Amino acid sequence: MDVDDKRTAQTVELLQEMIRNECVNDGRVESGDEVRNSDMLQTYLEGAGLDVETFEPAPGRKSMVARIEGTDPDAPAVCLMGHTDVVPVSPEGWHEDPFGGQLIDGEVWGRGAVDMLCLTSSMAVAYKHLATSGFRPKGDLIYFGVADEEAGGTWGARWIADNHWDAIKCDYVLTEFGGFPTETAQGNAITINVAEKGLGWSRLHVKGTPGHGSAPYQSDNALVRAAEVVRRLSEYRPVPQVHDLWKVQVDSLPYDDETKNNLLDPAKLDAALDDLPDRRKARSLHSCCHTTFSPNVIHGGVKTNVIPDEVYVEVDIRTLPGETKADVQAHLRAALGDLYDALEVEPIQEDESSASPVNTPMWDTLANVIKQAHPESPLQPGLIVGGTDSRFFREKGAVAYGAGLFSPKVTLETFAKRFHGHDERVDVESLGLSTQLWVDIAHTFWDS
Predict the structure, then answer these.
(1) Does position 338 have pLDDT exceeding 90, yes or no?
(2) Residue 181's closest CA among 375, 21, 51?
(3) Which residues contact 111 (CB under 8 A, 6 or more apart)?
(4) What whole-number distance in Å separates Cα of residue 169 and Cα of residue 21?
(5) Model's pTM, two decimal places?
(6) Where are the domains of the chain?
(7) How many helices (H) and strands (E) does the chain have?
(8) Is the dihedral of CA 144, 146, 150, 152 positive or negative?
């Protein structure tokens, strides 16, 4: 792959600016302020003579869309989608300023460096290059800089897909995350994510009876009951599912035949995961074959000497392919037992698992282009255990892949450690490879 150093330098600079804009999304509607990154991207692309359309469904939650019109109205449209928001940080855990965007020893440091401002900036640089070079695709080529991905897309992709689908309508969308060299039993492969788990985020309303904190004996304390709710959720062990993508993943794992056979046997799978020496790997694999429940937020109580009469527990629930909203409730009932009927369960966000096929022209294009950078590494379809904005496109019938292209320094394990973690950073080589990836895809997809 012939990486252009000048474009790589532009991606580095744009990534640094996006990090420094500090578009932190903590889930509140008044957070994010993606307008800063959106306006910067708008100015950057309008400088190439491109028309940019913007959407701001809530103050500061701004997204932007640019389009290079195709020459053939019947040709498939492609969207390059990158989100502009980042998750909060704990600065005391960092060795460098998380919003400094510093370039240190060939790596750009900062929140969002891998999730996913690296791709958002590389897409913008590639897109501007294509526009200024006179490139005309057969089908429309769209650049979508979107807000609010880190809190479920309510003020971003979900809102635009529901209210202005024509602005981002496409046949294929490329977004986070993929393109990592992954060790397999057959050698290195490049993981391109084709599916993701569903969301069943829920708020559990636990009720009690108020009273004076000086007389807690046999009181009806909502916080005590909530503690039992949390305990049961943490100990709940749903039956693992051996779905098709899990079979592909197990086949590629660099483990002995006995371990792999156990990982494909629902009766032995959990014990096999417990025996794996790499706990980070085991945690990731567990999420690929289980519906997961993580109680992460609790609100309740009004004063130290008042027994609380209500407490709210928010649970991050991730569902497997084929599971529905009804399955989420069945899981909660199984986990909580007699406590379930005494609760009020309020859905926070509900999206079923989504997937895209691999027998497509875009998959073939990705394989051919990525082979130039990693000639001995075939593509491998993967399942994202978190969530991305891909699901909103899949609901509309588009094919969505989590792509990108990273250097051998950024393996899947390295990415997972930096993703939402301390000392998030990405190497310049990966920025150059990703920038070139989008350029090469644009030049080859419609001719393949």
Answers:
(1) yes
(2) 375
(3) 19, 22, 24, 86, 87, 89, 98, 99, 424
(4) 28
(5) 0.90
(6) 5-184+353-447, 198-351
(7) 15, 19
(8) negative
Of 9-18, 61-70, 96-105, 247-256, the poorest mean pLDDT is in 247-256
114 three-state secondary structure: coil
| Cα 114 to Cα 122: distance, rounded to the nearest angstrom | 12
The amino acid at 77: A
**pLDDT band of 303, cuts 50, 70, 90:** very high
How far is CA 101 from each of CA 13, 35, 362, rounded to the nearest angstrom? 9, 19, 33
Q: Which two tokens stand for residue 213?
A: 């904190």
For 339, residues 6+ apart whose C-beta sits below 8 A from its C-beta are 225, 228, 229, 232
CATH topology of domain 198-351: Alpha-Beta Plaits (3.30.70)
How high is the pLDDT of residue 186? Answer: 77
Beta-strand relationship, 103-104 and 78-83: unpaired
Q: Which residues pair with 344 in a beta bridge?
A: 205
Q: How many CB atoms sit inside 10 A of residue 12's CB?
A: 23
Query: Which pLDDT band, with edges at 50, 70 and 90, does 363 fall under?
Result: very high
Cα(201)–Cα(214) distance, rounded to whole angstroms?
36
Q: What pLDDT band is residue 72 in, cutting at 50, 70 and 90?
A: very high
| Domain 5-184+353-447 sits in CATH 3.40.50.150 | no
> 198-351: same fold as 5-184+353-447?
no
pLDDT in tens, 190-217: 999 999 999 999 999 999 999 999 999 9
